[in-house]
Write a structure and sequence with these properties.
164 residues; Pectate Lyase C-like; 1 helix; two-stranded parallel sheet; little secondary structure; 10% helix; 4 strands; globular
Length: 164
């Protein structure tokens, strides 16, 4: 896994900003694999439709970020902070969110197959119409979390009688 320098991170964010807002000569959306973003401050980032596969976001701070339509599969978010972020229609399959703060995150219609939410703070999360098959929720704080229409087949650690 490659560590990302401050300069590389800055250039990555600039490239993605150009992708989002350029009217012509748009670059491709950001797409990276196997990068280390440990403890990075990414608060308020606009990473709509970005792709990060098998990346390490341990301890990263994404507070109030917009990750709509992002692909973040096989990534590690242990101890990360994503509270009040928007991840609508995102793909987060096989991700690790152990001890992460995901309070007030909107995951509407996202795919979180086999995600691990052990000890995560999921207070006020919206999992409406999400694919949570095989996801683990042991010891997670699920206060006021919404699971309307979610696929919870094979999910572990959800309260008995949870209606999806």
């Amino acid at each position: 896994m490659k560590n990302i320098s401050n300069e590389e991170l800055k250039n990555l964010l600039i490239q993605h900003h150009q992708y989002l807002f350029a009217l012509e000569n748009k670059p491709d959306p950001v797409s990276v694999c196997d990068f280390n973003f440990k403890n990075r401050k990414l608060r308020g980032s606009a990473l709509v439709m970005a792709t990060f596969i098998n990346c390490d976001f341990t301890g990263a701070d994404f507070t109030c970020s917009n990750l709509v339509g992002a692909i973040l599969s096989k990534s590690n978010f242990t101890n990360a902070i994503l509270n009040q972020s928007i991840l609508i229609e995102s793909v987060l399959n096989d991700c690790c969110f152990v001890n992460a703060d995901l309070s007030e995150v909107d995951f509407l219609m996202s795919s979180l197959e086999n995600a691990n939410f052990k000890n995560a703070n999921l207070t006020d999360c919206n999992f409406t119409k999400c694919n949570l098959s095989g996801a683990g929720f042991r010891y997670a704080n699920l206060n006021n979390a919404i699971f309307t229409g979610a696929n919870i087949a094979g999910a572990i650690g959800l309260p008995k009688g949870l209606n999806s």
